[in-house]
Amino acid sequence: MSSPPGRPLTFINAQMRGGIASLRIAGSQIAAVGKAPKRGDLIVDLQGDRLLPGLINAHDHLQLNSLPALRFGGQYHHAREWIADVDAHRRADPAFEASVAVAREERLVVGGLKNLLSGVTTVAHHDRLYPSLSNPNYPIQVVQRYGWSHSLYIDGDAGVRRSYRSTPVDWPWIIHAAEGLDQEAADEVQRLDELGCLRPNTLIVHGVALDRRQRERLSAAGAGLIWCPSSNLCLFGRTAQTGDLIALGRVALGTDSRLSGARDLLEELRVAGTVPGLDEATLESLVTGHSARLLHLEDRGALKVGTRADILILPAGLPLARATRADVRLVLLNGAVRYGDRHYAELMARASDWADVRVDGRAKILGSSVIALLGNARAGEPGLELPDALGRAA
Ligand SMILES: [Zn+2]
Questions:
Q1: How many whole angstroms separate alpha carbon 100 and alpha carbon 356?
Q2: Percentage of residues in the chain having pLDDT higher than 90
Q3: How far apart are the CA of 61 and the centre of ligand 1, in A?
Q4: At 91, phi and psi to the nearest 5?
């Protein structure tokens, strides 16, 4: 894996909220903000490039991202209709079935890579915490402490209540709900409330059917909403009304899987950015500070002393909603170089820690640990070119 730099480093001339500043990293943590470099630091001049916390994707199904996107052209009334269509498609389409048959471990690598290339350093995975998702060499960090249920319509009242009750109150508990336009979808939040499952650690994914009164109830309960507009627009032709909850800091942005969602979190931000009134600072909060708080991740999502050195660097002046993964100049995960431009990798990491690749036609570097994971995977990532045979890229 890429190693953290052997000595502390200070980024200077970084564009951060509030202006040009410096940021010091020691080991895997942010050690200072706005202070001059210390003697002996490696100094990396960003020349005005944007420096942000690594992004947090609040909803994904990491094992489903190498499957072909499914666009049936239908508009659904409830997510259960979509799931029935996916099941029918799976039985009828050998190519899709073959992509499902690829080993889950290989598909999980693609899910991690999808997120890393878009500047994401932490993902809330909605499924079991498979062992490889706790491996430090996995491309990104996965939230480790969470409870989850798929939904009321899959798990049933008793299963949902059991899931909620078995989740510690200081862990987030996450469930798909109100994912649709019909009465069933509209009733789900009230059902969760009646089951005792609408509490401060509850995070509802989607919420398309929520009306104003229900959003007020969600807010009064101290709960939050994970918003996945691309997936909602794909399935229902509309998305959740989120303005009031965003203003209260109760919304995090997620991609969902590529089956129904955007290619990655940067594309999701582009879709979110089309909602009137969402400025750059608000969009950033949906994938950093607000997301970290809702997911009970106190050690990330902000550029503060003592938080993890999970860092995203974008070109000077580039808004999140206009950035693509080929624009990403650097991703640091716990202080280690994972993805970005050769210019920064050469300054900050050993040559053995990364290798040249191309992403969407642009020259980039990728951490050696990630390339090693890709070495045996049959499930590839469209748009990623390794310079040599897989596994010999370095
Ligand atoms: Zn989902």
A1: 30
A2: 84
A3: 6
A4: -70, -30
Ligand 1 centroid – CA 172 distance (Å): 15
Q: How far is CA 320 from CA 147, 271, 278, in A?
A: 30, 11, 12
Which strands, in side-by-side order, build the sheet including 224-227?
A: 147-149, 173-177, 202-206, 224-227, 251-253
Quickly tell me which residue has 């997510």 as its tokens: 79
The residues, any chain, with a CB within 8 Å of residue 298's CB and separated by 6 or more, are 292
Q: pLDDT tens-digit profile of 329-345?
A: 999 999 999 999 999 99
Pair of tokens at residue 183: 């009465």
Residue corresponding to tokens 């050998």: 94
Q: How many CB atoms lie within 10 A of CB 91?
A: 9
CA of 157 relative to ligand 1 center, distance in Å: 19
317 burial via Cβ count (<10 Å: 0-12, 13-18, 19+):
exposed
DSSP summary character for residue 308: B
**What's the token pair of residue 329?**
């100049």
Name the pairing type of β-strands 336-340 and 330-333. Answer: antiparallel
Q: Give the distance (Å) from ligand 1 centre to CA of residue 276.
A: 25
Tokens of residue 7, six digits: 């000595």
| AA identity, residue 364 | K
Q: How many Cα atoms within 13 Å fall on the side-chain side of residue 286?
A: 32
Q: For residue 330, how many other CB atoms are within 10 A of its CB?
A: 25
How is residue 34 annotated by DSSP?
A: S
> 313: which 2 tokens?
């660097």
The one-letter amino acid code at 32 reads A
Q: Give the number of other CB atoms < 10 A from CB of residue 255.
A: 31
- What does the pLDDT read at residue 64? 92
